[in-house]
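Tutorial, part two.
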Amino acid sequence: MSYPEPRYTGERGRASAVFRPASPRPDTGSGATAITYVARQETTHGEFGLYRVDLGPKAMGAAEHFHRTISESFYVLSGEVRLYDGERWVTGGRGDFLHVPPGGLHAFRNDSDDPVSFLLLFTPGAPREEYFEKLGEYAERSREELEAFRIRHDQYNTGDMLDG
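Running the prediction step on this input gives:
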């Protein structure tokens, strides 16, 4: 494997870094789930989206699904999260990592009595914020509207929460 083609061809570099100070509040969330937008795809020019997810005790998470256009990676910051890798459930703890390429089945939830925090990395960057912000609203609409919303956001659910 080699490096990709250069995207910057200047000789001296440039001042183009973006600093985001920590936020005392999450950007979105309801009930036992809070999501902080660490790096939106606009900030990274579509290279990736990075989000911090905080799940409260016994929080449901996401049912089995896959994405056609993006990969999704999980990095556990604290607590224990149940991760489905397409074949089995595993318990991820601090420092554990799960990468799911496009088309890979996956799911997550918090089965414990303690909160869990993890980073979600989507590559390439996609406008996932609307999905996180409006999923609850669409879940209360018709099944057809919910399905169209999910597809618009590259979210292909395959079923309910799996045992494990």
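Helices lie at 129-139, 143-152. In part three we will examine how such features are distributed along the chain.
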